[in-house]
Design brief:
Layout (H helix, E strand, L loop, with lengths): L1 H14 L8 E5 L1 H12 L6 E5 L3 E2 L6 H7 L5 H16 L1 H15 L9 H10 L16 H10 L8 H4 L3 H11 L36 H12 L4 E4 L55 E6 L2 E6 L22 E2 L15
Parallel strand pairs: 1-2, 2-4
Antiparallel strand pairs: 3-7, 5-6
Helix pairs in contact: 1-2, 5-7
Length: 342
């Protein structure tokens, strides 16, 4: 964390000679996390920070909040369809891995880091997709249809050495500082072959040591809560990154003011704007999700459609604050994308 924050500090210091005005830092997912970490070590470098879907995993031993969140978003029918297609993929494992292995051989891709085609396939299927339930194959689907879905949605190509190599620094930081979720999958009992496959070690070559530092994220959390200012945390209503943010997973998305763990202020000029092709909405996703924000000390849910009546000044968010205990954002679950995508 400190190394990256120091790199950003040196870059900003150099560029401020050319651009002396006030700066706002921002980022999504890991970029949002990195922007917050930079502020932790160099809080005066910028005037404010807007972090989108930036997790705050302060207890890597407990993933129950994330499990509960996955059971709360989407419709019951959609969740059942996801579990069904996972089972089908593992029931037809041999047909799926034969196609996967043939594709890898043709593309000259390998699986030394994860260990084998079979291990890579199981790991990919364990990463539940979110959204797009209408396209999920049913149990009656052919093997070719099922494999085409697995290749595109869980994104099988991501789990090869050739893709993972470029993301080794990220996975290394997950395994040493940020933490990583391992999902509960009772619906797949009897179909899994590789215990521990969800551990972050699966993504990191064995010759790279991993020693977790539990104090790292606790330090970030304390700083944000007690010393941070001009920070804005933004999540879509259905974004799984908000697991156990300010209320228990599955609770109503409109908290009362008493559930806001801390006031996080922003520049009065920050407003909700209508998204365009080249300008995503700063207060949420453009797919109709709402966003929990803090306005003038109280909490509210805004539509990402950003109607004229929903343009507050000085709005801030993180479930109206940063997670009380954790909100988990493991690689592979950002808006349904796979580990090395987005």
């Amino acid at each position: 964390m400190w190394q990256a924050a120091s790199d950003h500090h040196r870059l900003i210091t150099a560029l401020k000679k050319l651009y002396p005005g006030a700066w706002i830092s921002t980022g999504g997912s890991k970029g949002g996390m990195t922007a917050v970490y930079h502020r932790r070590f160099y809080p005066k470098d910028v005037a404010g920070t807007v972090a989108y879907s930036a997790p705050n995993n302060t207890d890597d031993r407990d993933d129950s909040a994330y499990d509960a969140r996955l059971e709360a978003i989407g419709s019951p029918e959609c969740r059942a369809a996801i579990k069904s297609v996972q089972r089908q993929a593992l029931i037809r494992r041999e047909a799926m891995t034969e196609r996967y292995g043939r594709w890898a051989e043709e593309e000259k891709n390998t699986f030394q880091t994860i260990g084998s085609v079979d291990r890579a396939f199981e790991l990919a299927i364990l990463h539940q997709p979110s959204g797009g339930c209408a396209s999920i194959p049913t149990a009656a689907a052919t093997d070719d249809t099922l494999y085409a879905w697995a290749a595109q949605v869980p994104q099988l190509p991501v789990y090869t050495d050739q893709t993972l190599e470029g993301f080794s620094p990220y996975f290394y930081q997950l395994g040493t500082q940020l933490g990583y979720a391992q999902l509960s999958t009772p619906h797949l009992d009897g179909l899994l072959r590789h215990p521990g496959i969800q551990e972050i070690r699966s993504y990191v070559p064995r010759d790279i040591p991993l020693r977790f530092q539990p104090a790292a994220m606790a330090d970030i959390d304390r700083w944000v809560r007690h010393h941070g200012s001009s920070l804005m945390f933004v999540n879509g209503e259905n974004d799984v990154a908000v697991a156990d943010s300010s209320a228990s997973a599955g609770a109503p998305t409109t908290p009362t003011p008493s559930t806001c763990p801390m006031p996080i202020t922003t520049s009065p000029s920050l407003v909700c704007v209508r998204p365009t092709r080249n300008s995503p909405p700063p207060l949420g996703r453009s797919d109709g999700d709402g966003v929990v924000v803090q306005v003038a000390g109280s909490c509210a849910v805004l539509s990402s459609q950003c109607s004229p009546a929903a343009r507050p000044s000085g709005a801030s968010h993180a479930g109206c604050g940063v997670a009380r205990r954790r909100f988990v954002y493991p690689t592979g679950y950002h808006h349904g994308r796979s580990p090395a995508v987005g």
